Amino acid sequence: MSTTPPVTEDQRFIGLVWKCARQIDFLEGLKGEDDVPIPDEFLPRPWYIEQAAAARLRLAEVLEWSDGRAEEEAKADYERQLQIHLNMVDEQAGRRLHAEGLLPKAQDWTPPSAAHQGLKDIMIRSLTADIENNNWSFTPPRRFTGAKFRANEVREAQHTIESYEREVERARKRTAWVRALRENLAQPAAG
User: Fold this and answer.
1) What does residue 41 show for φ and ψ, rounded to 5 degrees?
2) Helix crossing, 146-186 with 67-108: angle to 10°?
3) Is 42 helix (H, G, I), strand (E, B) or coil?
4) Which of helix, strand or coil describes residue 92?
5) Is 125 left (phi over 0), alpha (psi -120 to 50) or beta?
6) CB of 4 within 8 A of CB of 14?
7) Closest Cα to residue 156, out of 139, 148, 168?
8) 187/26 Cα distance (integer angstroms)
9) What are the average pLDDT values for consecutive 10-residue runs of the chain, which has 191 residues?
10) Rounded to an integer, what distance in angstroms lies between the CA atom of residue 114 and that of residue 100?
11) Residue 104: CB atoms within 10 Å
């Protein structure tokens, strides 16, 4: 004899509501996760918290810069960006030279059988695509004045903080939505 009470129609309906609730974007990350409980409270995702904390520190630091320090920071940033640019250009040139060196070998290769001809064709297409795709023209970084660099850093930090604030509001709305649904489902069904 079973000691489990039978499932009522109200319980089935509530189960359906929560199953469907998982399918909407408001509960992103819970879609198809029927065994994961829906939390009572949603919090901002950790990435936003970490980024906002770093942005607040950066903003406070940048606002304290003298004009001379802003110029030094702009120069250092330009040199970092230029090095990244030069590395990308070198890497692209290396990939292109590598493909250009292998293409004639692939074209001259005699496959061991007619069944291997498709392999040769794929190799040639792949190397040709590598050559064509490694022909980009990278735009070198711009050298900003200290004032412009400082303004960009302030704007970037403020944007990151605003993104965090939007994430906090999003979490608040998700929490309110779930709580309202729970409260609604706790009420006896009309009818």
Assistant:
1) -135, 135
2) 80
3) coil
4) helix
5) alpha
6) no
7) 148
8) 22
9) 70 87 75 77 93 98 98 98 94 90 95 94 93 82 97 98 96 93 78 43
10) 25
11) 10
